[in-house]
Amino acid sequence: MTKITIDAKGVHYKSIFKSYSMKWSEIKTIEVYRLNKYFLTIEKPENYDKFSLLGQKFIYFSSKENHIPNKTEKMSSQFISLHWRKEVWDEVHKYILIKK
C-alpha cells in the first residue's frame, strides 16, 4: 500500500519498499499535469474538470526549480506525485500560503 501525507512539515511518500519526504522549504515546484497515452501537459489547477477523456490529472512536487516531469518519472526524494483531487489541491494551497 502506498500512502502520501501532506502536513505542516511537507509532503511524505511511503510505500512498502521506499519512503521519501520533502519539506515545504525544499519544494521549488508545485504544479498540476495531465497525462495520457501520448503526452504530458502542465495544467492550471483552476481548469479542474471532474471527468475528461484527455487523460488523468496529477499534482506534483519537485525540489527542482520549474521542473517538468517526464511520462516515466518515478517517485524520489526530489519528486512526489499524486492523483489530482480538488480537496488535496486546497490543502496544498493552504500550506503554500503559510510558506510565503
Which helices and strands appear, and what pairs or packs with what?
Layout: E1 3-7, E2 10-14, E3 19-23, E4 29-35, E5 40-43, E6 56-62, E7 79-83, H1 86-99
Antiparallel strand pairs: 1-2, 2-3, 4-5, 4-6, 6-7
Can you tell me about this structure?
There is one protein chain. Helices cover 14% and strands 38% of the residues. It is mainly beta and 100 residues long. Strands 5-4-6-7 form a four-stranded antiparallel β-sheet, with no helix packed on it. A three-stranded antiparallel β-sheet has the order 1-2-3. A hairpin with a 4-residue loop joins strand 4 and strand 5 (40-43). It is globular. The termini are far apart.
